[in-house]
Amino acid sequence: MSAAEQGRLIKERKLSPVELVRAYLERIERYDGVLRAYITVCAEQALAAAEQAEQEIARGNYRGPLHGIPYGVKDQICAAGVRTTCGSLIRADYVPDFDATVIERLKRAGAILIGKENLHEFGKGGTNFFPFGQPRNPWNPERTPSSSSSGSGIAPAAGFCSASLGEDTGGSIRGPAAANGVVGLRPTYGRVSRHGGVMYAWHSDTIGPLTRTVEDNALLLQAIAGFDERDPLTSKRPVPDYVAGFTVELKGLRLVVVREIAWADGVHPEVRAAFEQALTALKELGATIEETSLPWARFAIPLQLLTSDADAASMYLPLLRSRWNDFDVGTRTRIATAALVPGVIYSRAMRARAVVRRQILDAVKRYDALVTPTHLRPPAPVDEAREKVESAEDVKQRVLLRRISTHPFGAANTPTLALPMGFTHDGLPLSLQLVGKPFGETTVFRVAHAFERATPWHTRHPDLERTVRRFRKNTEPAGA
C-alpha cells in the first residue's frame, strides 16, 4: 500500500500503526541483511510511538494523513537519542541530543521514525567500501541502488517503511529513486529547512522525500516544508496544498524536452524507448511537448563537483589530517583534491554556476516543466558503479554520463522529481524526471500524478524472496 492508503485505513481504525510497524520490522529482519538499507533500526522507539499513535487516534486526536505512518531518514539527518553516523567510521558513535527540523515536523504530524538509512560517506557519493554494509538494489542485488541516499531509496521500494527522507546536492535523491523504482523529489532550495542535517554544499543541499507514489511524496513535503528561523536560507513563502493541485489530465500545460540530455550520446536504447513512450503518454493526457536546447547544462557537472567538494573540504580538512585512514578512499581522494582548489578558481566556478543556472531558469520560465530521463542508463552492476577514474573513458562513463541528467538542476536549485517510467527487459526500473520553476512543486506534482495514474509502473514491486535467493546463489562459495 501507499502511505496515503495506509493513512486512510489508520484514520478509520481499520489498520493498526502497531501492526504496521511490526510488519516493517519483520521485513527488515528478514531481508535487510542482504539489501543493507538501514544502519540503525529504532525498533523499540518505533513500537512505543506506534502505540501512542494508536491511543491518540482512538481518543479522537487524529493529527492528519501521516499519523501512525512509519518512515526512515538518511543517516546524515539528526534524531535525538539515535546515532547519526553519516555513513562514516569517523562518526560511528555520534548520538545527537536534538531532532532536525524535518524530524520535528514529522513527529508533530504523528509519523513514526523507524530507522536511519544507509548512505555514501557524508552524503557525498563515490564511496567504494561501506562500513555499515554494501547497499544493494531490491530488484537485483548485483545492481547499484545509486547514491548517495542509497538506503532511502531501497527502504520504501522494499517495503521496509512507508516513506523516507533523503538529501540531494546533484542527484542524491533522484538517483536512488530512479534506481529503486520509487518517487523522489529534490525540492526548491529554501523550501525545506536543513537545520539538523549534516550538509556540506551550502549552495545546493536539499532534504526531500522518497516514496512509493506521487501522492505520498506531496504529503511528506507538505509536512516538512516551510520557513525555519534556525535555517535562515529557508523561504517565508506560504506552503500550498500540494494534493489539491492534482488533476487527471494535463490539457493546456506546455512541457519541453531538453535535447542535450534526452537524446545525448550514450543513452541506453531501453531508456530511450521508455522515454519516448512516456512522452506519448503525456501527450495523450493533453500536454503539448516541445524541444529546447541547454548547451551549457553539461558544464554544471564539473562546476557542481568542484564547488561542492571544496565546500566539503572546508568542513572536513581537520579530520583528513587526524583520521585519514578512517575515511573511505573515494571520499578522502575527492576531499583532499578539493582542498587544493585555489580561492580564485572557486570564485570563478561559483560565478560560472550562476551563468549555467540562468540558462536553465530562462528555459523553465517559458514552459510549465522540463522533461528528461532521470538516468540515461539502467542501474549498473555494483562494481561498475564505483567511481574509479583511471582513464578519459572512465571520466566519460563513470562521472559525466551518470550526472548529465541530474547535476544541472541541482546547480539551478529548481524543484525536480523522479518517478517510474518503465522497466528494462530484465526487470530493472527506469525513471522520468520533471523539472519545474522555483517553488513550482505544485505543477511538478500535478504532471507526475497524472502520468502515474495513466501508467502501471508504480504498481510493480520487487520480489525480495527472489532477490535474496539470487544474492545467496551468487555469493555462496563454490561447492557449498
Can you give a write-up of this model?
- With 480 residues, the protein is an alpha/beta fold.
- An eleven-stranded mixed β-sheet has the order 1-3-2-4-6-5-10-11-9-7-8, with helices on both faces.
- It is globular, with a radius of gyration of 21 Å.
- The chain has helices spanning 3-11, 17-35, 43-58, 101-108, 150-158, 174-180, 214-224, 259-262, 269-284, 300-323, 329-338, 343-366, 382-385, 392-403, 407-412, 441-454, 464-475, and strands at 38-41, 70-74, 112-117, 163-168, 183-186, 206-211, 254-258, 288-292, 369-373, 416-423, 429-435.
Q: What's this model, at a glance?
A:
43% of the residues lie in helices and 13% in strands. The chain has 480 residues and is α/β, with parallel strands linked by helices.
Q: What is the fold's blueprint, element by element?
A:
Blueprint: H1 3-11, H2 17-35, E1 38-41, H3 43-58, E2 70-74, H4 101-108, E3 112-117, H5 150-158, E4 163-168, H6 174-180, E5 183-186, E6 206-211, H7 214-224, E7 254-258, H8 259-262, H9 269-284, E8 288-292, H10 300-323, H11 329-338, H12 343-366, E9 369-373, H13 382-385, H14 392-403, H15 407-412, E10 416-423, E11 429-435, H16 441-454, H17 464-475
Parallel strand pairs: 2-3, 2-4, 7-8, 7-9
Antiparallel strand pairs: 1-3, 4-6, 5-6, 5-10, 9-11, 10-11
Helix pairs in contact: 2-3, 5-6, 10-11, 10-12
